[in-house]
## 1
Amino acid sequence: MRSLLLAVLIVLIAQVTVAAPPCVRYPKGKAPATHALPLCEEKPSGNVDPLQRIAEMRKTLPVPADWHFFLVTEADWRKIQLGTHSAYSNLAYKTTFIRESYVESVQDDKLRHTIAHEMGHARCQCTDESTADRIADQLTQDSQ
Ligand SMILES: [Zn+2]
């Protein structure tokens, strides 16, 4: 009887694990410098999943394989106060935090340039905005 209960428990845990959506969201109240595992929450509104949009954009740009994108909810974005309206990259953690409402509201070209801009920071390993923009212009032209 005990092994039957254990088996049922294992099956239930496996189902929960398999059913978990492949989404990532930034944990509430954490500083962006931490590299904690992202948490999944409610599915975003809109026709196209913001994470799907980012994944599609990622395929068209030279994003390093070990680079991470964290989608940040509007409420969390306001709490964290990254000093930007769209995205922020932590170069040490190879992570871009991107605002969900921004992803949901901008056209493909603009979103693509924003991601390219963040990859500009990754390439130059610098925080200079004009350098990142120049690299972004080059990346978006090269990969069209
Ligand atoms: Zn920038």
## 2
Amino acid sequence: MNKAVFLDRDGTINVDYGYVHEKNRLEFIPGVIEGLKILQDLGYLLIIITNQSGIGRGMYSIEEYNVFNNYMLKELEKKGVHITDVFMCPHIDEDNCECRKPKLKMYYDAIEKYDIDLNKSFVIGDRIRDLSLCDNEPIKGILITEDNNEKFIYKKSLYDSALYIKNKEKSWFFWIFVHNISEREKENKNEYF
Ligand SMILES: [Mg+2]
Ligand SMILES: [Zn+2]
């Protein structure tokens, strides 16, 4: 099984100017590249889950979305960040589809496609609706916000979220390491006594 970080796009990776779909509107939030690299180096698949209701509202077409998406992925690749996949919902609320966040179809499709171990994975987004998976599954959510949030872990950027995950991994590793040592000591004692 794989571990993954599910990432919202607008407002989490790139600056959210509202219905971003033009190349000249692609602006990575400071620290995002470094943050994504940290997560990638820790072995997480990076999977973007994005609502693009601008398509359903007729503001831009799927083709225009694809051009922007491919451009963004290429820019990230140039900087050494590989995004495993992007799942996108083009609908508006009135369509009552199964994919538009907070609905979970995009997450479950990704979980199945990439055999994701939710216990070892994270969701990061700048809206509560990005973290709806946390209500249903054993996955940790990080809300990107400056405000205190009681329900989720909150960090002020993707970069800070990546540092948090890195530190968490260190403490898990340490815990497993110490645990194994003490188990081994017990076994050794059994041998001698
Ligand atoms: Mg967002
Ligand atoms: Zn949808």
